[in-house]
Amino acid sequence: MRYRTMPKNGDQLSILGFGCMRLPATPEGAIDEGRAIAQIRSVIDAGVNYVDTAWPYHAGASEPLLGKALRDGYRDKVKLATKLPSWLINNRADMDRFLNAQLARLETDHIDYYLVHALDGPLWDAVAGYGVAGFLDAARSDGRIVNAGFSFHGLLADFKRIVDAYPWVFCQIQYNYLDTAFQAGGEGLRYAAERGLGVVIMEPLRGGLLGRPTPPPAVAALWEAAPTPRAPVEWALRFVWDHPEVTLLLSGMNEESHIAQNLAVAADALPDSLTAEEKALIDRAAATYKELMQVGCTGCGYCMPCPQGVQIPKCFDAYNGLHLSGDAEMAKFLYALSVGGALGASEPGFASKCVACGECLEKCPQHIAIPEVLTAVAAAMEDAGLEQRLATAKRMFTVRPD
Predict the structure, then answer these.
(1) pLDDT digits (tens, 9 = 90+) for 134-164
(2) CB-facing half-sphere around the CA of 294: CA atoms within 13 A
(3) pTM of the predicted model, to two decimals?
(4) What parts of the chain have a pLDDT lower than 50?
(5) What's the pLDDT at 280?
(6) Which of 320, 309, 392 is nearest to 351 (CA)?
(7) Average pLDDT, the chain
(8) HEC string of the chain?
(9) In the chain, fewer beta carbons within 10 Å around the N or the C end?
(10) What count of other Cβ atoms lies within 10 Å of the Cβ of residue 387?
């Protein structure tokens, strides 16, 4: 295992972190506790020292499971990360209630790396108004948390102002070779690093898409032509680790073979180690994937705000995911989750709310026929199962402390 330094505190963190959002499940859908605990302990024994969970993962069951896994001395071997569910916060007291409940669920007296979860601009404005800065200061002062950070799913301009709004130790962003200009993207990665923040990467495989053993034929042909043969997952992970600004990446490993593969790649991944030829090959693979996408949206957000409240970039991202992932039901669930209001939006931002006013058209630097594409998104994503998916998403992400 290789380690990199968290800039502001000197912690030596494994470049591979274990993410507890997609733990192995039983046929009934519950966490397979025995197998999950064995997996978590096995990666810690192999040198992984950063484990990440959150309040809503596995409908609230992830944190208690991780607490069990870290018994028998394993808690002392890792840096533990979890997150404040920002979309459930209505006042300052809520923050303490959630943190104290998380400490109990995780069977610990402190969280090493505590994140304000899933921020975008409006959600940050809301929790900032409720006093999240004072909460973080107090929790650091009394020892309940050690390092404060945030995870992000919004627009680049909002990312930058959040970075500058508090003395964060670290942040967590989505980044992979398809998302270099999406959300915070490469510019946000560099912006945070230049200000001394450690950067934790989520979705390095874009929900597993980039790690599939059998990619689309045009992408497979590129990998087969590479001078150094590598599996698709290795290309994707090495791309992220090649960035010296990256402190570590999170992998939601839930198969023993995936764990072994990730560990093997992590043992040999150095920053600035890809050759110019290899970087060009990855760029061609990214371009090939993007040709398969239905919408050439970069997520810049220039089209926003929509007068009708449509979450245009999120609609397009979910629609592209439908066509790239091969898992239509999961793509439709993520659509319901991301634009349906489960994560704090005051109103749902579904594509079907578009009235074709055309205000967005003159703003889009990619010249996308936005109203036309939103019509296609609504037809594909808003079928008879939408209400059930939305209800499930809200149920999963609105669990409160007892």
Answers:
(1) 999 999 999 999 999 999 988 899 999 999 9
(2) 20
(3) 0.84
(4) none
(5) 97
(6) 309
(7) 93
(8) CCEEECCCCCCEEECEEEECCCCCECCCCCECHHHHHHHHHHHHHCCCCEEECCCCHHHHCHHHHHHHHCCCCCHHHCEEEEEECHHHCCCHHHHHHHHHHHHHHCCCCCEEEEEEEEECHHHHHHHHHCCHHHHHHHHHHCCCEEEEEEEECCCHHHHHHHHCCCCCCEEEEECCCCCCCCCCHHHHHHHHHHCCCEEEEECCCCCCHHHCCCCCHHHHHHHHCCCCCCCHHHHHHHHHHCCCCCCEEEECCCCHHHHHHHHHHHCCCCCCCCCHHHHHHHHHHHHHHHHHCCCCCCCCCCCCCCCCCCCHHHHHHHHHHHHHHCCHHHHHHHHHHHHCCCCCCCCCCCHHHCCCCCCCHHHCCCCCCHHHHHHHHHHHHCCCCHHHHHHHHHHHHCCCCC
(9) C
(10) 11
Both structure tokens of 269: 């991944």
pLDDT of residue 395: 82
Q: Which amino acid is at 174?
A: Q
Domain ranges of the chain: 3-283, 312-397
The b/e string for 146-174 (b: 16+ C-beta within 10 A; e otherwise) is bbbbbbbbbbbebbbebbeebebbbbbbb
Check residue 345 and give its pLDDT.
Answer: 52
Counting every residue written for the chain, the total comes to 402
Q: Residues 8-53: pLDDT tens digits? A: 999 999 999 999 998 999 988 899 999 999 999 999 999 999 999 9
Q: How many CB atoms lie within 10 A of CB 377?
A: 26
Q: What span, in angstroms and rounded, lies between the C-alpha atoms of 97 and 20?
A: 22
Q: Check residue 394 and give left, alpha or beta (phi > 0: left; psi -120 to 50: alpha).
A: alpha
Position 82, amino acid: T
Nearest to 243 by CA among 186, 315, 328, 313: 186
Q: Are strands 16-19 and 12-14 parallel, antiparallel or unpaired?
A: unpaired
Supply 147's token pair.
């390092």
CA 338, 342, 344 angle in degrees (round to 5)?
95
Annotation: CATH topology of 3-283: TIM Barrel (3.20.20)
Alpha-carbon distances of 259 from 2, 12, 266, rounded to whole Å: 15, 21, 10
Q: In the beta sheet, which residues pair with residue 3?
A: 14
